[in-house]
């Protein structure tokens, strides 16, 4: 039994506090969805610590606007923009083909939540599973050599407390039989994101690549555009800088050196829970199960082949 990782940071910590004293000069990072919400603050503090940061975004215009703001704010000219649509495998292939050189930090941050109607990609993949998980899976696998050549790389998988709503339903990943529910689909995709960190670490730790997953907390962003806004009570909400803190901890903290396959929230490793608590804290065992993680990886590999 691994003991849970505890850090001096917590619910209120900001990404700026977490990265204090860490120098990322000569490190290279990708933040998917880096032009909105939590992604902006994630990219901002990475750039502020000296990293070269690529915003992997589906709107190049939005990406350029944010990159210019972050360059001005941090004084770091190395905030770059590259097109990436995670629901489109051809777009991912192009992104990967254009990537040159090592990659030290991959932050799989982009996501969609609770699409009101069942939507599918041309392959017949349910859209939240396709975007939040399969897209990041293809990206991560595609960038494996770049991660390996960094000589110590971290993958950060932005999951959600929404994972507590549903495990990965292997027998019906794309809602061909199950009645579609926006949050069950979101929950499944976020359980898959957590499992990806487990299996990536099992496969790649020996090559210096470690992956962890996290719940950023409740932050009012564009993510809630299909649900009429954030429902969380004011005292449990975070700012985007607080929402980015756990991603930054996993991506950069020396305390996480050689740690992988775990799930964090509020900058600490989450407790495993046996049922969904009313406050939606903790991690479900199915989101960390090694057998499911391996099965999901094999399933995903076949889907994107
Ligand atoms: N906010 C919360 O309370 C909360 C809670 C738990 C987990 N999370 C997770 O945190 C992450 C960041 O969310 P956020 O709150 O910052 O939301 P956000 O402001 O809506 O940002 C999501 C980002 O994902 C991008 N994206 C969506 N679909 C994409 C696609 N097909 N290809 C490429 N990029 C795509 C969006 O691009 P566009 O700008 O072009 O739409 C946007 O940049 C998500 O994974 C979310 O599930 C958030």
CATH classification, class level: Alpha Beta
The helix content is 25-40%
Intertermini distance? 35 Å
SS element count, helices = 10
Q: Would you write up a description of this structure?
A:
This protein has helices at 15-19, 37-48, 60-74, 89-98, 127-142, 144-148, 182-204, 240-243, 245-252, 290-304, and strands at 28-32, 52-57, 79-83, 105-108, 153-158, 209-215, 218-219, 237-238, 263-265, 268-269. Helix content is 37%, strand content 14%. The longest helix is centred in the middle third of the chain and has 23 residues, at 182-204. The protein starts with 14 loop residues before the first helix and ends with a helix. The protein has an eight-stranded mixed beta sheet with strand order 3-2-1-4-5-6-9-10, with helices on both faces. The protein has a two-stranded parallel ribbon with strand order 7-8. The structure holds NADP nicotinamide-adenine-dinucleotide phosphate. NADP nicotinamide-adenine-dinucleotide phosphate (NAP) is lined by residues 32-33, 35-39, 58-59, 62, 84-87, 109-113, 131, 158, 160, 215-216, 218-219, 221-223.
